[in-house]
């Protein structure tokens, strides 16, 4: 059950970011702007209880950046510093990523 909900969340994110419906379906909210769809996704992330990350978190870390970015980096899960600040890649993994880029 949780896996199905997680797949739906990932498919919804794909649709929002690319504008391409998954599985050839028409997006349910064509009248909403991309910003509105992302705000809805952020709300869904904030209330998500599909895994144990929700049990000890201080903040959710949905990310940020331009809506028309050519590249997106997705982390596995927020670390302690990301959870404290509510921002992605600000801890040790972020420092490594900065060096890598």
In short:
By secondary structure, the chain is mostly helical. Helix content is 50%, strand content 0%. The longest helix has 17 residues.
Q: Helix and strand succession? A: HHHHH
Largest sheet: none
Roughly how many Å is the radius of gyration?
Answer: 15 Å
Rounded to the nearest angstrom, the distance between the terminal CA atoms is 37 Å
**Helical content band:** 40-55%
What is the mean predicted local confidence, pLDDT? 80
**With helices defined by DSSP (H or I, 4 residues minimum), what is the helix count?**
5
**Principal-axes shape call:** globular
Classify the beta-strand content into a percent band. Answer: under 5%
Number of DSSP strands?
0
Question: Unreliable segments (pLDDT under 50, ≥5 consecutive)?
Answer: none
Q: Which structural class do you get from the secondary structure elements?
A: mainly alpha
